[in-house]
Amino acid sequence: PVASIEVLGAAAGVDTDALAARAGAVAEAAALVKDLVNTPPLDLYPETFADRAERAASDLPATVTVWDEEQLAADGLGGILGVGQGSTRPPRLVKVSYSPEGAARHLALVGKGITFDSGGLSLKPATGMVGMKYDMTGAATVLAVALAAARLALPVRVTAWLCLAENMPSGSAIRPNDVLRIRGGRTVEVLNTDAEGRLVLADGLVAASEEQPDAIVDVATLTGAAMVALGTRYAAVMGSDELVDDVLTAGMETGELLWPMPLPGELRATINSDVADIANANPGNTAGGALLAGVFLQEFVGRTGEEDDAPRIPWAHLDIAGPAKSPAAPYGFTGKGPSAVSVRALIRLAESFSGK
């Protein structure tokens, strides 16, 4: 933890104590993400990740609820269950709730938490598995942001959903052509078990939508295609126009490198399924992979009313696959290794929701 911060040359009337507290909270949030990401996957798996979340929240005004595999099945969270069923270390869903009295707005955060991604039966090559402990960065990020909001006593409700699973090959793993039932009843045909992040996020997006928040932001190391498009320093942002603008503004205000990407409606037809509501991939397609993943996720964002044509809840998707890990020499204040990308921007977004 940060022992002390001294602010030099502050202008008259500036609350230096508040500035120092904010700096400390942001630094602790980034450090938490980096610590979790650096933990070897032998030691960090869904159950221990959930334990870490409970410990991290224990001294803050935040509550943590954990779904084990039995509760996941009872509540119909088939995406998380399906991805995790190939591992001997079962999946978890973790909800971190910060609900200050009098909060007028509610920001929901959903994070991909694949504690190790082998690709499942659609197995990655050996070199492709190196670094796949990073595939839980999204879940670590939303946890850290929710706890920072609590630490700063922001007057906004923040709920973080950590969708945790280990994607492993085994006799019990999901297979291509299996069909999973997501929370809420929609079905997904699995055509690529290595497109697993969107399956766990689908459950998280539905669960988050059920609480009718004012906005939902999901964070995920979702696609290699995002890194092909934007490199290793920029994160892709797509979703509802106004919320995407808010996220981009938060990024500019905090020095985060974010880049807007489209959600082409014509891509939806490329993931039609003959046996389910939607497929999780378009095998053989190499074009627009990051956009296709966003189009898939959009299907699971809830609506603001019960009518089928009601507007969807404002939603933004952050694909942080490129900048989650800084692969080379440090640049700026970002060292080699986990970067805690989007932590600063999302804390700023929460502040903007609170009117600060």
Describe how the helices and strands are arranged.
Blueprint: H1 16-38, H2 46-57, E1 63-67, H3 69-74, H4 78-84, E2 92-98, E3 106-117, H5 126-129, H6 137-151, E4 157-167, E5 179-181, E6 187-189, H7 197-209, E7 215-220, H8 224-230, E8 235-239, H9 241-254, E9 258-260, E10 278-279, H10 289-298, E11 315-319, E12 325-326, E13 337-338, H11 343-354
Describe this structure in words.
With 356 residues, the protein is an alpha/beta fold. It has one domain (16-354): Aminopeptidase. Helix content is 35%, strand content 19%. The protein has eleven helices and 13 strands. The chain has helices at residues 16-38, 46-57, 69-74, 78-84, 126-129, 137-151, 197-209, 224-230, 241-254, 289-298, 343-354; strands spanning 63-67, 92-98, 106-117, 157-167, 179-181, 187-189, 215-220, 235-239, 258-260, 278-279, 315-319, 325-326, 337-338. An eight-stranded mixed beta sheet has the order 1-2-4-3-7-11-8-9, sandwiched between helices. Strands 5-6-10 form a three-stranded mixed beta sheet. α9 links the parallel β8 and β9 (258-260). It starts with 15 loop residues before the first helix and ends with a helix. The model has no long low-confidence stretch (mean pLDDT 96).
